Amino acid sequence: MDRARLIGIAGSYGVAWFGIRVNTFANSRAAFASLRGKPFPIYAIPLRAGMSIGMLLISVELFLMLCILLFIPGNLAGPCFIGFAIGESLGAAALRIAGGIFTKIADIGSDLMKVIFNIKEDDARNPGVIADCTGDNAGDSVGPSADGFETYGVTGVALISFILLAVHDPKVQVQLLVWIFVMRIAMIVASGLSYFINEAFAKGRYANVDKMNFEAPLTSLVWLTSIISVVITYLVSYFLVPDLGDGSLWWKLSTIITCGTLAGAIIPEGVKVFTSTDSSHVKEVVTSSREGGASLNILSGFVAGNFSAYWLGLSIVSLMGAAYVVSRYGMGDLMLAPAVFAFGLVAFGFLGMGPVTIAVDSYGPVTDNAQSVFELSVIEQIPGIKESLKKEYGFDVRFERAKDLLEENDGAGNTFKATAKPVLIGTAVVGATTMIFSIIVKLTNGLTHDVAKLSLLHPPFMLGLITGGAVIYWFTGASAQAVTTGAYRAVEFIKANIKLEGATKASVEDSKKVVEICTKYAQRGMFNIFLTVFFSTLAFAFLEPFFFIGYLISIALFGLYQAIFMANAGGAWDNAKKIVEVELKQKGTPLHAATVVGDTVGDPFKDTSSVAMNPVIKFTTLFGLLAVSLAVRLAAEQGPFVSRGLAAIFFALSTIFVWRSFYGMRIGSE
After folding, report:
1. Which of 331, 375, 490, 654 is deepest in the core (most CB within 10 A)?
2. What's the predicted TM-score (pTM) here?
3. Cβ partners under 8 Å of residue 216, min gap 6
4. CB neighbour list of residue 212: distance below 8 Å, 6 or more residues apart
5. Domain boundaries along the sequence of the chain
6. Rounded to whole angstroms, how far apart are CA atoms 97 and 234?
């Protein structure tokens, strides 16, 4: 298991390295492509980079899991899968938390200079811009790559664990395992095929136009992938498991996966209603800012985020409800709790479009950094540059048009970056449901005893439900506190050292110092948060097993709605600023200042606190499976006082890091 855990960590870090590497090249290429003044290359380059990341990420994940399944002895494969998934979660949680804190310290520090000094976006004289670019790669390339890798793996491990624990017929176990892995291979093929078809149509339609809706081909890619995936799901199931159960389960299982696959397309559409530059909610944020400034801007963003949580929550419930209805017919003869298996398959379907989901998520940081690279190059100030480019590359340079296109595409990137977040957090929660059930099966010996303790009438279970909510709100505050203190130090340094007169670029030393500040507080914040989560998981698992079950359910549910609210509120604030900059052309005005302030509030909402809940929930659930098993065995062998004594010690340790995450991270604490 230890080696599997190390492989999982290495996998998360490996795909994260590949993601940042590819996106770094794509940033510069997209910036250069904009000089022609044509929109299509600026769309095609980020998407191609994202698809390469998504295809490699899912393929490596699948390869490693197949190696465990095929080459590890059967009695060791289960622990290896769990160890592998825990390793993935460890790596993803560290990268998501640290990357999210880093990127938003840098982003806030850089953006506030626009208000304080009334300078342009990504002004090369601003020492915070380099850190902002680094942060976009660290938080929005590294984090999502590792997160996607881990999400895909953990969902698979949850289903494998369920099949081995809840399905008693070995023949059916083998059939279902083979079906799941073949389906995953088919989904990769579906995503690749969809990309090439969509790209051919997009190129034919937009290759030579001067203006395009950047969101349109991305939307068509998501829906095309969803439709092709659904068709392939039914075909593969028909040929692979036609005789499973009563002979009708092939289409029932396909229908359940389809609920998840459709969610992967429907949820992004719901997110766009609240975060797109064409959204009435985002335009409401702009309108409220005209008279109410930053105050009403922030309140309107809160409204958009709250409404989005309501509607997206109902969408997820509806699709899971449909899966539950289908699971009631015939699946109960093969397994315990078929509805739970159905929910796991919904999470599986969420990720059926895994490469495309990762691609549209990765699209955002490339579009953002392409804009920054353009400004940092100060290419407009280079003598004779137009003539040189004309001679070497054979096209006339259009600087102003290039900047407009990059800003417009950044708005599309913001929107689609926002659409991937609820898909990943939804997968985490739905997949956690399956893993929690696996823990329940172990605790109740196949649902044969202590089932009554899974009830509000069992006080520890009820107390666990309440405790989970407290931990989610601590996590939200602790991650935002790290960003707040780090951003304060970054702003403090930049204000004291920015040179606007007689300089075209910030000095390398000043830019490095801002990066150093961001790194320092990202590492401190991640260290405190992760150790709190680690010791809290041990404390609650050792306290009482059914308390821990309630706790796991609670963090999943509270985390789902908190993450959706924060991600979409942040997306609305971000694109409200983009409307003012691109459509209204009102940079440097009080309206622009109000939307910049709103955007800086939304930064830790959408790119720190919300996104990091995903790996934290999955790590807690996976690690909790081992911790609660150990706690039950220890209580049986040594008595309950030993396990509860250890719970008290672990809880005391967790409170130390809770204190450090708040009071130890305050601005005046240094």
Report:
1. 490
2. 0.92
3. none
4. 39, 40, 43, 206
5. 2-669
6. 38
